[in-house]
Amino acid sequence: MAEIKAFKGIRYNQTLFAQKKIKLEDVVTQPYDKITKEMQDAYYEKSPYNIARIILGKGEKPYDEASAFFNEWQDKGILLKDEEPSIYPYWQEYDFQGKTKTRKGFVALLKLEEFASGVVIPHERTLSGPKEDRLKLLKSTCANFGQIFMLYSDPEHKISTLIDKEISEVAPLADITESYEKGVRHKLWRVRDESIIKEVQELMKDKTLLIADGHHRYETALNYRKLRLLKDANGAKDANYRMVTFVGMEDPGLMILPTHRAIYGVNTEAFIHRVSSYFVAEECKNKDELLSKLEGKHHQYGLYDGRFWWLRLRDENLIEKFVSKEKSKDYKKLDIVVLHKIVFEGVLNISEDKILSKECIDYLRDIDDGIQGVNSCKYELFFILNPTCMEEVQKCSAHQESMPQKSTDFYPKLITGLVINKL
Questions:
Q1: pTM score, whole prediction
Q2: Residue 387's CB: how many other CB atoms inside 10 A?
Q3: Residue 287 is part of which domain span?
Q4: Are 58 and 44 in contact (CB under 8 A)?
Q5: How do residues 303-316 score in pLDDT, each as one tens digit?
Q6: What's the total number of domains in the chain?
Q7: Three-point CA angle 160, 161, 162, nearest 5°
Q8: CATH number of the domain encompassing residue 346
């Protein structure tokens, strides 16, 4: 059973911001794991109250500094706690292929469940380093700053319809455009009506939840709860809950983008000859021709090595040779799995450990960045993929099989700093 509840969110004091001429868009950020060094520097320049100073510190003791900033900003009234428990509808409007889309979600607290319960299901593997980092931040600040993106099934859109009706004639608390995903408009409301909150709670009870984004943050919350329970079994009730943004799987604004792969530091000599044992390799005149051939095709990939290639798997039976027999057919059919197992591990001899540690691979959203990387000799090979579809994510999750890292890129990202949960 998925148990959610309202909470007294902490938000930036926009009344004070108006007096000081501080813009809300200058204090919020992309998720911590999307922030590059250059982005971090830019966020710091934007405002002395930018949330990056808490979620990604620069000093010798970043976690102590995060706690100090968080406490100071509350003491100074930069951050204020809402007086009533609320859920927070969160909409993101963006343009895609000439059409405006809106992804509708809501922020609430979720009672933590171990994965074995089947209530919360992951779809990607996690790494120890990020979890250790987030745990130190959580222990230092006792607060949730970034969102976890959870999906639930609601074919009749009962929950979003209920919430939409409640906020239809109310101005949002926040209405901003964050600087790094340009053109994405973020809107946040607050719902305090206890009857509405109870109805949403009832509708969520029978839901199975799928982690779309934030696997490290969720596992960190589980680890933090264990630590709290070891210290004080009775005083750790607040650690049983974690701030989450919930979005319906059937939401028309739900979008998954492909994450392309760039390879460097490996032997790519005669690669086209070697890969041709498994894939038909056809040269294309340019990027546009390649993309037109690739779009929507299963087990087909684009490749740029200075020239554009269209790669097509010769025989699906080859998959059985490279992927463990223990894996489900749904897992084996994933484009990401075929590329990783046959091309990366089989042809390029890149071990799974090297892929996980990002020793010779970069993950890119923008195709032109990959092409430029090859042209500048930063990368040897750049692979262009089609996006993973929602149905594939659901099937693998149903088998309790974790997909390879960076299998999905849910767009747009949930920004950090609109609302905070203090334990």
A1: 0.91
A2: 17
A3: 259-386
A4: yes
A5: 999 999 999 999 98
A6: 2
A7: 90
A8: 3.30.1760
